[in-house]
Write a structure and sequence with these properties.
The chain has 267 residues and is of the alpha/beta class. The chain contains ten helices and eight strands. It has helices at residues 20-32, 50-60, 100-106, 110-122, 135-139, 143-155, 160-165, 186-205, 225-229, 246-263; strands at 8-13, 39-44, 65-68, 94-97, 126-131, 169-172, 214-217, 236-239. It has an eight-stranded parallel barrel, surrounded by five helices. The structure holds 1,3-dihydroxyacetonephosphate. 1,3-dihydroxyacetonephosphate binds next to strand 8.
């Protein structure tokens, strides 16, 4: 596996923050402050702000990718309030699937998440698949088994070549680290990132698993990003709270640029 070849990605998950009235300005400000060579930037605003963020970035910084935070697992139908993959055409090119807050709030199962992955890929969206254990799992030493189960469940039945071609990204986000200010250590996150690739390799991906960017998420800030990016198995971050703060994003992406330069992907 050749970690030096993988791109460095910083994705901002705004969760249920911002309104269409303020999202455009925030996106423009973050974009202007994160123009660092070699770093793939993605902003995932709420659905209702996708259009204004798209328009704001189209004129100011079209290099910033736009992602949705979710997509429905059905093609269309009687699902009041839901958003299908086809509806995202022209609004987003990335999509987060299986975030732990959706597993918790909306009861998403690995099987549903697997179907969402399929919808995303069929619609030409680049998926960020989130996995991660609860605190009780980690305390019991079950983190590997839990994440392996999530990956097996979500990737079952998918053609590795198709997902590889779609640019699948996996975000390891331990639930106990999300929004708590208690981030994982760089070492622990790196161990999990390697375990993620080993699991995926065993699911028929083989050497292709080495292509998958694995991000860390969970209380990432400009002060701790270096600890994660110092690890060759970690390719960037999925950032929640800090992604709403331009100063924080500037610091995180600046540090990501150093990794991109060191990997030689910032050409
Ligand atoms: P925080 O960075 O707020 O911990 O959130 C992480 C996350 O869930 C990103 O998807």
């Amino acid at each position: 596996m050749m970690p030096a070849m993988r791109d460095v990605i910083v994705a901002a998950n705004w969760k249920m923050h911002t309104t269409p009235a303020d999202a455009a300005d925030l996106a423009r400000t973050i974009a202007a402050r994160t123009q660092v060579e070699g770093v793939t930037r993605v902003i995932c605003p709420p659905f209702v702000s996708l259009a204004v963020v798209r328009d704001a970035l189209a004129t100011s910084d079209p290099d910033v990718g736009i992602g949705a935070q979710n997509v429905h697992d059905d093609l269309q139908g009687a699902h009041t309030g839901e958003i299908s993959a086809a509806m995202l055409a022209g609004l987003a090119t990335w999509v987060i699937v299986g975030h732990s807050e959706r597993r918790r709030d909306a009861g998403e199962t690995d099987e549903m998440i697997g179907r969402k992955l399929g919808r995303a890929v069929d619609a030409g969206l680049r998926p960020i698949l989130c996995v991660g254990e609860q605190l009780s799992d980690r305390d019991a030493g079950r983190q590997d088994a839990v994440v392996e189960g999530q990956l097996r469940g979500a990737l079952r039945g998918h053609d590795p070549a198709a997902l590889d071609h779609a640019g699948l990204v996996i975000a390891y986000e331990p639930v106990w680290a999300i929004g708590t200010g208690r981030n994982a250590s760089g070492r622990d996150a790196a161990t999990m990132a390697s375990a993620v690739r080993d699991t995926v390799a065993g699911l028929g991906w083989g050497l292709r698993a080495g292509d998958i960017p694995v991000l860390y998420g969970g209380s990432v800030t400009s002060a701790n990003i270096a600890e994660f990016l110092a690890e060759p198995s970690i390719d960037g971050a999925l950032v929640g709270g800090a992604s709403l703060k331009p100063d924080e994003m500037a610091g995180i992406v600046a540090r990501a640029g150093l990794t991109a330069a060191a990997r030689g992907t910032a050409a």
